[in-house]
Write a structure and sequence with these properties.
Blueprint lengths: L2 H54 L12 H12 L4 H8 L3 H10 L12
């Protein structure tokens, strides 16, 4: 083989390698495009789920106030003075259920002013 033939073979080999690399690049571009598309779909699904959660769960119903020890002491004192659960609830702007739960946590569910045994 002459020098010219060797160079010609090398050029053909390089062109073949170049073509293989171009094909690999195109395949990688396609895979990247598919990945980006799936990532976008996933992001949209996550955002829809977040929006639905906010719309369906956050802020539903009444706002719940947390009672403190001072309020609890007031409730117990009023109950010991003979007020009904409804009267206590109205005077404090709370629901009767909340008052009942606070009294139950403190063992005052039987009669006004009496502790459960």
């Amino acid at each position: 083989m002459t020098k010219m033939e060797k160079m010609s073979e090398q050029i053909k080999s390089l062109k073949a390698s170049e073509e293989n690399l171009r094909q690999e690049i195109e395949e990688l571009k396609q895979k990247l495009s598919v990945y980006q598309s799936k990532e976008k779909e996933h992001s949209e699904r996550v955002q829809r789920a977040r929006d639905n959660f906010k719309k369906n769960w956050v802020g539903k119903g009444r706002q719940h106030k947390i009672h403190g020890h001072k309020e609890e002491e007031i409730i117990l004192s009023l109950r010991n003075k003979g007020l009904t659960i409804k009267e206590i609830a109205e005077s404090l702007g709370r629901s009767p259920t909340t008052i009942s739960k606070i009294l139950a946590m403190n063992g005052m569910t039987k009669k006004r002013g009496e502790q459960e045994q």
